Amino acid sequence: MIGRGREQATLHGLLAEAGARGSALLVSGAAGIGKSTLVEDARARAVKLGFRVLACAGVQRESSPAGLAGLQQLLHAVVDRAGALPERQRAALLSAFGVGPSTAPEQLLLSVAVLGVLEEIAEERPLLVIVEDIQWMDQPTVAMVGFVGHRIRESPIVMLVTCRSDGPDPVTELGLPELPLGRLAEADAAGLLAEASPALNRVLRERVLREAEGNPLALVELSRGLLDRGLLGSSSLPDRLPLSVRLENTFSDQIGALPTPVQDVLLLTACGDADVAGVAAAAGHLGIDDAEDQVRRAEAAGMVRATGGRLAFRHPLVQSAVYGGASFPRRIAAHRALAAVHASDPERSAWHRSAATVGRDEHVARDLETAAGLARKRGNLGAAMRYHERAAELSPDPVLAARRLTLAGDDARQAGLIAATLRLTAAARKITTDPVVLAHIVIIEETLALHANAESPSIEDVTHAARRVAPVDRNLAATLLLFAAVECRLRPDPGASPAVLVELERLTLADDDLRMMMGRAFLDAERHAEQLTAAAEQISADISNIPTFVANGFGSAAESVHDWTVAGHCWSAATVGYRRSGALSDLVSVQARQGRNLLVRGHLPEALTAADEAWRHGVDLGLPVIAAHGAMLTAHVAAWRGDGFTEALTAADQLTGIARGDLAGLRHWTLGLEALTSGRNDDALAELLQAAVHPDFAPVVVADLTEAAVRCGAADRAVPLVAAVDRMIRGFPALLPRLLVHRSRALLAGDTDEAEQHFRAALAPDFPLQSARTRLLFGEWLRRRRRVDAARDELALAAVAFHHAGTQPWAARAEAGLRGAGVTVSQSARSAAPPLTAQELQIARLAATGLSNKEIADQLFLSHHTVGSHLYRAFPKLGITNRAALRDALKDLS
Fold this sequence. Notes:
The chain is mostly helical. Among the domains are: 5-180, Rossmann fold; 186-240; 256-341, no CATH class; 433-524; 529-582, no CATH class; 667-752; 838-893, Orthogonal Bundle (Arc Repressor Mutant, subunit A). It is built from 45 helices and seven strands. It has a five-stranded parallel beta sheet, with helices on both faces. It has a two-stranded antiparallel sheet with strand order 6-7. Strand 3 (127-132), helix 6 and strand 4 form a beta-alpha-beta unit. Helix 20 (418-430) packs antiparallel against helix 21 (435-451).
């Protein structure tokens, strides 16, 4: 390990510390800089220390489809350990390997399953996981590696990931600690060259040192190439080329010197088949009778190594040289041979036949589309995308080509590949005018915009696409118009809403059609108040029996008519349904909405739990808008409680740069509440006026805004909003906004008798935190009127409610009022805020119902080891030692 002592010590240190904590490290650098050598040294060290080693490597995508090949290579020898996983995780992993039911698992569920298997193995002895050349793995696999790498700290697992830093698409999203490898120092480079090629004369040695630029592989291979060609003097030296090209040319020269059958075996391996038996069988189709002997010759030549019945090139540039240096007819022959060998595997056979196809071929394109469907069923979205894209390239019919590109775009969207999604849908749009295909493209783009940092189509473009497709497919048009209605709600535009509603009503859907009701709720709720109110009553009467998608859809509709209670029931039902079915993307979207609903209704612990899940899983799933909502909701709870506000707000701002109306409104409300909590009333008023611009937030911020305005002597600025909200909620079962309007009118009434009537009308048990705010203000008002006994009652009830919710700044204000009313406040009377994190509390509550760790893990999409770790930390915080005591310990936190 010449010149790499510091880096070697770093890796050895991680192995030595694995018993105390797990770790993950990204080793990066240019091709040939020594990443693999360093990792191989760590592998040897790990074996001596008793570690088990699992390894995989990326494969260049020119010769094989992107997909979960790296995962399968990593876990193929231990997939039987899936039996120890929770049920859904087990099914997801077995499906990915094609040995279980086709479940089309969510990416995150599969990642959790991988983590669970690794943790199971690491319980027996420490584990080293090696992931080489991650730059050639598909994005879902990259995300999976990052997910696992961030969660192994509590297990004796060391993960080493290598990545080229000089390629066209360097991996930047892992977020792991990085160990960059640079060029060797001059003295170390000279020492390595002297050891590798002592026969070189001074002139050649200086030339190699100059051109190798401190790259270890270049030092070895360039000098070897000169010696192999007999260039012992300084004449006839090759022209200077980029280092990677020179290395690849050197390998090409070495490969060209091998017998043709050996070259053919190497080519078959480079075409993406690493299985020795598969390569040998394909070689037979090329007329090579002694294929296994040729494999041994290739290994003896140092081009590949065979381990466990699989072949691996000794360096990725060797594979590139083999595949790139082969003639086109030889590549076609190799892919045809592999297609014949894998005739019973529809995916591999179709891919190799497509690689062997010149021009367009609908039969092969159709087989690739079938292969894509199979890959999707197994959750392999990266491969499905490549199959669909290649099928489009082979399609003679432009409409079919556009449709397949659109399908590839949807694969990419579901895999979290934003740039690929936009590239594929843009390519499809260029080659078709078919209204159905264009409608699907708009749906993909809209869905992407709602959950990720992607720009959405204009409302006019969505409406135009719906108008064009309506004569062909009314349901597709209705879906598009519902997207347009959502955009109208997110980006309020008085001119756009009527036009969208006209188009929706032209479809003549039934009045009770969910899409029609949602559209009317988003676009013109006031005019359809009676119908929507009746529907809300019907839904709430039988909420447990409605389909999940109906509960989801009507939750949005109910919030649009300001019925936060019915909306909350809908979100809860949808959460249960999506959690039961394992639809994680839908679940986290609903969790963000449920979190906001709980926040508005004043149930802070439950809101924090929903927000935490939306934040964590939104990040893991590559849904930054959802994650930002979760982080912002967490910041909002922190604003109430006066703790951790800045950290959560910063996280939310980093997750999205899009000025989404709903997210911007939530942000202004959060900043306004924090300022109001801290007594900065002018700042609070400025932020809350911004929040009130959005129609969803005006009814819920009106009382906060009025309080801020009154406190900074600008009550007149609240009057128009109070009147507007009052008009807005007429005709709706909008209990909460009505309570907030009453509180606002009480504040505006000053010390008059009218204020008391409004204060009392603003109290309701359904909204405990808002009622506590009203009692606080009412108690302060009563003190000013010298009605001390009545003031004490209201302030005491407010203080208890604030302490129970963990909102200490507000509790302190209520206690200050009590002291002013002559009451001595006992410290022991205070109930502390929940000592558990949101995730610990969620797990503890589920454990208290009798669920096992595995059952909890399946519900929350966690590994069961993670569940156990959280419970282990929760017990001492709750002052208990076992699960049997959980129920009683959690009573005070409910």
